[in-house]
C-alpha cells in the first residue's frame, strides 16, 4: 500500500503562499519519495496550485457539496474542484462537523459526490477528549465510519483519516500503542464492511504530526499515511517530514 502524506492548509494561504507549493513540488520531483504527496489549499488557490504542481504532487479540496450544481450560495461541488485541478477532497473534518454541523449523513452524501466525480475522498473521523476519557473512542470511530463511508466505496476512492480532536493543533498525540489500537480497530471495521477493498483502504493519522514524530507514527501498523495541518504550511517543515519518512523506510540515516 502506498503511503499518502497529505497537507491540510485549512483557512491559510494567499497567492504569495503558492511559492510553498512550488517548493514542495520541486523537492518531491527531485527526491521521488515512496509516497503519494497531496496538498489541500483553500479553494481559492486550487486552480493555480494544480497548474504550478504540474502533477509532481496532487492538489485537493477541503470540502465539497453533495450536489453537482444549484442554488447553494457559497458552496462548491466536487465537479468544480475536479474542474479546477483537484484530484482529492477532505470530507467531514472535525472542524466542519463541529463548526458547520456536518452529520455523518451529510458527509456520506459528499463522499458519494467525490466518488461520482473521481476525487479521492479523505473521510475524517475522530473522538473528542471527553469521549476518549469515557472509553468511547472505538465506538465513536465505528459509528462515524458506518455513517460517513457509503456502501461500495473502493480503496482507490477512499482514505480514512483518524484525527483525535484533542490532538489537532495541540502538540499532543496519542501514544504509538493507542494509535495502533485505534487503527487496528478501524481496519477491522473496513474489512468487515468492504472485504478486500477495506483491507486496501489507506488509514491516515492526523493531529500534531511534525518532523519530530512523523517517522514513529508512520511506522505504526495500519497507519498508511498522515493528514498534516500546521506542519504542511511551510515547505521546509513538510519537506522534512517527507524526507524523514523516505529515509526511515530505506533504513538509512535520518536527515
Ligand atoms: P495539525 O497537524 O495542525 O494538528 O492539524 C491536523 C489536522 O486537522 C489536519 O486535518
Describe the protein's architecture and organization.
Helices cover 45% and strands 16% of the residues. By secondary structure, the protein is an alpha/beta fold. An eight-stranded parallel beta barrel has the order 1-2-3-4-5-6-7-8, surrounded by seven helices. The protein is globular and about 40 Å long. The mean pLDDT is 97. The structure holds 1,3-dihydroxyacetonephosphate (13P). Residues 8, 93, 163, 168-169, 206-209, 227-231 line the site of 1,3-dihydroxyacetonephosphate.
List the helices and strands and how they pair.
Elements: E1 3-8, H1 18-31, E2 35-40, H2 46-53, E3 58-61, H3 78-84, E4 88-91, H4 94-99, H5 104-117, E5 120-125, H6 129-133, H7 137-148, E6 158-162, H8 176-194, H9 196-200, E7 202-206, H10 211-218, E8 225-228, H11 235-250
Parallel strand pairs: 1-2, 1-8, 2-3, 3-4, 4-5, 5-6, 6-7, 7-8
Helix pairs in contact: 1-2, 1-11, 5-7, 7-8, 10-11
1,3-dihydroxyacetonephosphate (13P) is lined by residues 8, 93, 163, 168-169, 206-209, 227-231.
